[in-house]
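2024-03-11 09:14:02 INFO queue: dequeued item DNA-binding transcriptional regulator, len=278
2024-03-11 09:14:02 INFO validating residues
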Amino acid sequence: MDPLLKIRAEREGMSAIERRIADFLLENAQLLRDYSSQQLAAALGISQSSVVKFSQKLGFRGYPDLKYSIAQAARPEGTQDTTTNGRTEKPELLSGDLWRRKSDAESETRAINPPSSLEYVASVLDRATTVLLYGTGEDADLARAFAHRLALLGIVAVHHNDSGHLAASITASRVGDVLMALSAQGRQPALCQLARLMRERPGKVVSITRHIANPLRAHADVALLVSAHDERAYVEPLLHAAGVQHLLDRVFVLLCDGRAERLARFEANLERLRTLSD
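2024-03-11 09:14:37 INFO prediction written
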């Protein structure tokens, strides 16, 4: 497994000192070759033995082995810059790096979400009387599109773009209804309160957030996670969107496979839409 992905996957179970080391490695992977274990320890204000033990706990022989593995994983393809229209751009970006990074995000996202979690999400959506969907920021468009897909399957799905309206819907929800909350950071206090309210109804809560510690995950019955990391601030949101879309697509396919009645409704609704558009 990619060492950076392994660190992200195991971060939640680490001690406070181990999380400090993990966060430093994740945020400075490209610069790690310039740090010895002693320098890393000094930068974090911890003992050198803590760095060594951290490396060994991840399955490496020591810090040099971990550092080399991370450097190989973080090294971009191509090292020379190319100038285009007066701008300096990296050739790996020009030659399809974005496609590769999206593929990596989808692959890492698939690795950290066990099939059993996705199957569980599909099962609760299939049984729900109503599915409430809410997305923050750019996730709102993904939530809206998924609500439309669920409706085509004959599942009553309501997309909300206002937390007040969502609160009203939650108070009217019934046992077994589902709230799907999409939030990259998962830290909005209002959304966390609504997730807690939904579980008190009692309903089910499915969260989709980045693979980081966040309160929304704690309020979810099942937390789906997205791995999307890039040092370029303008690229990382694109990778996150690709990861979220991959998860939603997998759940949708599970709702179709082996469910003849759902699939029949989907095909019938598609035909109705074609008729309306003609």
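2024-03-11 09:14:37 INFO annotate: The beta strands are 82-84, 87-89, 131-135, 157-160, 178-182, 204-210, 222-226.
2024-03-11 09:14:38 INFO item closed
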